[in-house]
Design goal:
The protein has 2 helices and 2 strands. It is mainly alpha-helical. The protein folds into 2 domains: 62 residues; 29 residues, no CATH class. A two-stranded antiparallel ribbon has the order 1-2. The longest helix is centred in the middle third of the chain and has 61 residues.
Length: 99
């Protein structure tokens, strides 16, 4: 047994179908542009990773040179000003028993 569909419902479905077909046509039209954007995005991500790796390597080299002769906190090992044994952060936390 089939139910009757009202004219209003038929018009609504027809409109929805037209809108969906128009949307699919639009997607097909812009698909090449979306592919170019996706490939450009992947290239940028790759270049960003390479830059981040280079920065990390340079930062490690600078930190190694900077911390080689520096004073270090006896609690956390962070670089501290000369003449101190505990960094400011550890001192505020309680210094691990040192004051």
């Amino acid at each position: 047994m089939r139910f009757k569909i009202s004219k209003k419902e038929r018009r609504r479905r027809k409109l929805a179908k037209r809108q969906l077909n128009a949307f699919y046509a639009y997607i097909k039209k812009i698909a090449p542009v979306l592919k170019k954007i996706a490939s450009a995005t992947l290239i940028l991500i790759d270049k960003t990773r390479k830059v981040a790796e280079s920065v990390a390597i340079l930062r490690a080299a600078v930190d190694e040179q900077y911390t080689e002769n520096a004073e270090h906190c006896v609690v956390c090992g962070d670089v501290i000003p000369e003449g101190r044994q505990v960094c400011y952060i550890c001192e505020k936390r309680g210094g691990g028993g040192l004051k």
